[in-house]
Amino acid sequence: MSSVAVQRLRSALVHAVLIGFALLIAVPVIWTVAAGFRTQISLLMGDLFFTPVFFNFGEVLFSKTSDFLVNYRNSLIVGITSTVLCLVVATLAAWSLHRMRWPRWIPNIFLAWTLIFHMIPPVALASAWYTMARTVGLDNTFTGLILAHTTLNLPMAIWLMSVFVRDVPKELEEAALLDGASTPVLLRHVVLPIIAPGLAATAILTFVFSWNEFAVALTLTMKQTATVPVAIAKFAQDFEILYTQMAASAALSILPALLLLLIAQRYIVKGLTQGAVK
């Protein structure tokens, strides 16, 4: 077998594996979205072919008993605010770790601790979050949930931003300092434009994690402040599970993250692969 044939076979195998993984991820999502267009009877009977209906989306969005649009707004408020806080704190923390004259062991211990904290399941911290929030009067408030999500996602944001800040050429920073730039000016006009892809990648991941977080949101919120994951779980009622309405709400919950991914795809890929060759 010629080298060209071997290369084509290898390429075909790689593509087959990638297509297999893509289907493994896409099929459950497609099934969930399709379930939102089915009737409850059709779904439970497992009909392969069905006539699409829009009743479930209408019930989720416009029913007098549904607060899904309010939950959507709540998730956007919590996700956007916690993402902005994470980006600001993580960028400044990464700058401090790699540019200030810390002893070498301090950044290593700090990053190790953030990694350990990130490995703790959020559900294990839910009761602690509730106790602290109730003690200071932040239970059932956006502030309490925003602070909780910021804390949960901050370790990941610090790890990502530390990689991007570390790879900023020090020569550019030294040249800016020689020209009389202060630290805020240096960060704004030199560092931030360079790490913009990293900021985009970190922002997307942080927002998605905040948007999908369930355990802490369930513990800290009530009807007025509940987020989308909490709202979806409420379709599992005491005597009935509204599968099709749950599927419709799940399909609608995909839209913000999907929109962000489509808009910032180029920056995300560049940000996640930055420094890989190095």
Automatic annotation (TrEMBL):
Residue stretches spanning the membrane: 12-34, 75-97, 109-130, 142-165, 186-211, 242-264
Keyword field: Cell membrane, Membrane, Transmembrane, Transmembrane helix, Transport
Membrane-topology descriptor: Multi-pass membrane protein
DNA-binding found in the keyword field: no
Record keyword Iron-sulfur present: no
GO BP annotations, alphabetical order: transmembrane transport
Example of a GO cellular component annotation carried by this entry: plasma membrane
Matches recorded under InterPro entries: BP-dep_ABC_trans_perm (IPR050901), MetI-like (IPR000515), MetI-like_sf (IPR035906)
Domain ABC transmembrane type-1: 72-264
Subcellular location: Cell membrane
Record family assignment: Belongs to the binding-protein-dependent transport system permease family.
Name this polypeptide is given: ABC transmembrane type-1 domain-containing protein
